[in-house]
Protein: Regulatory protein, tetR family
Organism: Streptomyces melanosporofaciens
Amino acid sequence: MADRMRQDERVAATREALLSAAERLFAERGVYAVANRQISEAAGQGNNAAVSYHFGTKVDLVRALVRRHAEQIEGIRTRLLAEIGDSVELRDWVACAVRPTTEHLEALGRPSWYARFIAQVTADPALYAIVTEEFSVTAPSMRVLKEGLNRCLPDLPAEVYAERSAMTRHLITQMSVERERALADNAPTSRATWHEAATGLIDAIVALWRAPVTRVP
């Protein structure tokens, strides 16, 4: 039994090392520019087939990386949604869209690679489908968030709602990438903390949702 437990611990440690190495390399170089062999080497694994053995295909590896973070982000979002209850303030709901990501990035420490990894993945149509699928399974709170935003914006046309949802997603992702990269490079940042960065994002996104809708003749 003890031998089996030690074996399980070694397997878990190897998987974690591979995930960490893959996330960093994907963030820095792009998913398709990184070979499984490079991931194994970066993880300190002598077996070049370690990635295939533990995860299968590169797509399976990306899925595992997305899932690695999605459950933690879901936990933060669920807590924030519980705190605002049935609020009718748009800013409360926007905060529930922004702060799960920024709080998670802060918890990861410095340096982190999650924001840059997600940016790489969501830029690829096939990989973006994986992200969407994983979040639909691991993030049921997203439905509550969307319903809350809808209640605050009852007169917003559906097509504009969809457009501004996409803008919101891109702003959160790309501004997180900018800050994460600056922190990794020890470069100046416009805000001192992730919490303050989130506040600036919330200000901008609330204004985005409240922007006028110009009817095109």
